[in-house]
Amino acid sequence: MTKEWSPRIVAFFCNWCTYTAADLAGVSRLKYAPNVRIIRLMCSGRVDPQFILDALARGADGVLIGGCHPGDCHYVEGNYKMLRRFTLLRRMLADLGIEPERVRLEWISAAEGEKVKRVINEMTEQIKALGPLGLPRKFAEWDREVIALARQVRDREAAAGPCPERPLTPEPQEAVHA
Amino acid sequence: MPKPKVAFYWCASCGGCEETVVDLAEDILGVVEKVDIVLWPVAMDFKYKDVAALDDGAIFATLLNGAIRTSEQEELAVLLRRKSRYLIAYGACAQLGGIPALANQFSREQVLQFNYEDAPSVVNPTRTRPQVHFEEAGRTPHLPEFRHVVRALDQVVDVDFYVPGCPPTPNLTRAAFEALLNGNLPPKGSVLAPDVALCEECTRKASKPTNVSFTEFKRPHQALWDSGQCFLAQGLVCMGPATRRGCGAACPQGNMPCTGCFGPTSRVRDQGAKMLSSLSANVAARDEEGIRRTLDGLPDPVGTFYRYGLAKSLLRRKVNLPAGSNGH
């Protein structure tokens, strides 16, 4: 790594509250850490746990979810659904070796631009302290044992001499798992 | 015209998939008549070198069951891939990692330590462990290496089709053979089973509530279950909604909830996350404490939601386990 590492956080914000609050933070010219990539969804209830796992698997160091305060959901129930999913997902992530602090759920209303700033800054600091999660690098590391064998087989074949009808196994790729 | 060559091979598996092939009963005669079996370690005596001597692509189809855990399994997967026109991941372990992939929650060291030292039935005062190479009587035998990670077949080699199930049912197996032999094949990468959820063929479907609402989760051994009502309505985890159909809802018919062995449908990338999503969203409580209390009824989310699918899940394994340093 040439540059100093800095956390990458994927944020899923609901259209009605938290995204609007992030907008407010923007027009109020509040400064916060540039480490979040915000994705706007209609509701925190739209956040499929697959999105969170996929973000982590593709290199996010943390995932932040923002929704309306309890009782304020534009769709009545969405934020409760998120809270329930989040509760179990965090426990499961801990079982799979991911620190619970890497996934955070916050209720931020459209008026709380300040809170967007505070939460993002706080989370960036927390994840800085935890260090990178680096899953894509880990996946490649795990698969090195498979690639090493594929290379051995290839070298053995090469040593046995070329055979016109039987082309050599192609050079194994670095990442077996897409 | 020479008969098409077929190979059966097993890797990290229990033998149940082999049983299914035998369970074709009289139908197996029809299959055997039409094909020439070139490798089937569980039933017939062929040597690996016989396979190695074949031309590349000479085997019409290989049905490989079991997950990939050792270097030997990997080598055979690579060899059979090269020799076969169609490589089929047969059964949940080859397709998704299966039960063996639950070991992806533990390091290799933990697995070896338990099995060779700590398990109550083990007597091993010298703490001997299998070695990749060792000297005996002037010779150096080699043993396969035990990998850090359990893999599904397509995480090691390219796979043409998948036959799901733990084990696949005889019906699916027969249909797969028919499709192969008649050349009536779906696009490469397809799972050879219907692409809809299990609930569609479950006899209890009519009693599935529109809004499932969980106040507590129960486990199968804790009560006697109504044999006609949807398991979700009874507070049991049934993986049916997140699982592909094709088994004829065999487990629900035996009064046991689905555990998810057919894997997800093509629209779902991660079966466990999807099931977690659906179940927990339907908890009745709205307050943090109440939600936590209800969800505490699911003591082992990884083992419940990824019983067969951990290797192919988005995270693949417990992510903070070591992966380096080979040699036991």
Structural write-up:
- The complex is a heterodimer of chains A (178) and B (328).
- Chain A is of the alpha/beta class and 178 residues long.
- Chain A has two domains: 125 residues, Rossmann fold, CATH 3.40.50; 36 residues, no CATH class.
- Chain A has six helices and four strands, in the order βαβαβαβααα.
- The longest helix of chain A has 18 residues.
- Chain A is elongated, with a radius of gyration of 22 Å.
- The two termini of chain A are 22 Å apart.
- About 3% of the residues of chain A have low confidence.
- With 328 residues, chain B is α/β, with parallel strands linked by helices.
- Chain B has three domains: 128 residues, 3-Layer(aba) Sandwich (Rossmann fold), CATH 3.40.50; 41 residues, no CATH class; 108 residues, no CATH class.
- Helices cover 27% and strands 11% of the residues of chain B.
- Chain B is globular.
- In chain B, 44% of the residues are buried.
- The model of chain B has no long low-confidence stretch (mean pLDDT 93).
- Chains A and B meet through helix 2, helix 3, helix 5 and helix 6 of A and helix 4, strand 6, helix 9, helix 10 and helix 11 of B.
Describe the structure using short key phrases.
heterodimer; A: 178 residues; alpha/beta; Rossmann fold; four-stranded parallel sheet; B: 328 residues; five-stranded parallel sheet; two-stranded antiparallel sheet
